[in-house]
Amino acid sequence: MKRISVIIPLYNNEPFLARCLQSVLDQxxxxxxxxxxxxxxxxxxPALCQTFAQRDSRITLFxxxxxxxxxxxxxxLDQAAWDAVFFLDSDxxxxxxxxxxxxxxSRRTGAD
Length: 112
Fold this sequence. Notes:
Strand content: 15-25%
Distance between the termini: 13 Å
Strand order of the largest sheet: 3-2-1-4
């Protein structure tokens, strides 16, 4: 069973973060970790992420000085130790079947 690292760059998106994180936790495919990379937020987004992380050990928050979304994604890649990576922006939500379908299609096509 493939394990997925979901990488979420975060910068001042507190109003959207709870829905984003909940959409990942609501996935039918549950073999994942969530790496939230706070890129120097000045709002309460990191604190909200910590609240989620206390309820679900698959969520980990990493903090860094503001260097931009690409640097945050790269930091997530450095921390990811799982079989597959999925990038998600902190103001997006995903369908509950997305990760399951991603794995099914990967197996069907032989894609990494």
